[in-house]
Amino acid sequence: MTFKALLATRASEAISARVVEMDEENLMPGDVTIAVDYSTVNYKDAMALSGRVDVIRQFPLIPGIDLAGTVERSSYPGIAAGDRVVANSWGLSQTHHGGYAQKARVKGEWLVKIPARFSTRDAMAIGTAGYTAMLSVLALEHGGLNPQRGDILVTGANGGVGSIAIAILSDLGYRVVASTGRLEESDYLRGLGAAEIIDRRTLSEPGAPISSERWAGAVDSVGNHTLANVLAQTRYRGVVTACGLAQGVDLPGSVLPFILRNVTLAGIDSVNAPQEARIEAWSRLERDLNLDKLARTMQMVGLADVPAVVGRMFEGKVRGRTVVDVNG
């Protein structure tokens, strides 16, 4: 049987992608075969398709670090035909065919059953970005934060991680400060629950090693000078999660926030997180994520539209979550 897929190829270091017909025999090894409903476009997907970072390790490859659909065949214990499942990261779009296709064959250990409250489209409106946001919330809680401790800053607020982090944190009772380079999107951010909007330029330039205390914690998807400044302005015994590198991979800061204010910097890895962490995150998403707010973050595109979305993402013209209807 054939199926549609967005296939990435590389020639002379340039990566291109086009929709092709593939045969199931071209799927990679795995013990679960899935009829895919939706995928999504994350920042990592944009990095993969643009070639700015060597995410894709072998060519040709079907990109897409996320997928959601229904199991057709399974020999993996606990996963059966008819189950609705989601896969986030692991080797998808790196060494294994990813979610930009109507079919997928993957390892059963990569899969989480989709909570009953969510459709497969909801699962991809969440995607790796939303699952990462929840991992960040869990890390803030593990560090002892609660709404009474003070404000939570969310950087990269218009992006996928930022949008869903704002939605979750505000509904948990936190006062959320959103940092964005697109102040014209303030109404969108306030609609998700942000109480205050600040210009990202106040954080993105080199700053003092330690500054006045402003927030009890933060979810940072930007890195570089932004993360250093966030740490410098975090309150005593605050917690900051680092889950992205939109500004850069460096951390040009100081140890002073750590040794003078006992600040915790918690790294968030969504790619190889253990199954128990994934299940906990999806369980909390089912409990704590407002579906009306999730819907406000979402736009829908088809497989052929993905390269154009990547271009708009790097131009700063994409907000929230982009869901890919692989059958549309």
Describe this structure in words.
There is one protein chain. This protein is α/β, with parallel strands linked by helices. It folds into two domains: 2-114 and 295-325, Medium-chain alcohol dehydrogenases, catalytic domain (Quinone Oxidoreductase, Chain A, domain 1, Alpha-Beta Complex); 128-267, NAD(P)-binding Rossmann-like Domain (Rossmann fold). Helix content is 30%, strand content 29%. The strands form three sheets. Strands 3, 4, 5, 6, 7, 14 and 15 form a seven-stranded mixed β-sheet that branches. A six-stranded parallel β-sheet has the order 10-9-8-11-12-13, sandwiched between helices. It has a two-stranded antiparallel ribbon with strand order 1-2. Strand 9, helix 4 and strand 10 (194-199) form a beta-alpha-beta unit. The chain is globular, with a radius of gyration of 20 Å.
Head-to-tail CA distance between termini: 18 Å
Helix and strand run: EEEHEEEEHEHEHEHEHEHEHHEHE
Largest sheet: 7 strands, mixed
Structure summary, number of beta strands: 15
Structurally, the number of domains stands at 2
What structural class do helix, strand and pairing data support? Answer: alpha/beta
How much is the average pLDDT? 97
What is the approximate shape? globular
The proportion of strand residues reads: 25-35%
* CATH class division of the largest domain: Alpha Beta
**What does the radius of gyration come to?**
20 Å
Q: Specify the CATH homologous superfamily of the largest domain.
A: Medium-chain alcohol dehydrogenases, catalytic domain
Residue share in helices?
25-40%
Instruction: Determine the number of helices (DSSP H or I, runs of at least 4 residues).
Output: 10
- Low-pLDDT windows of residues: none
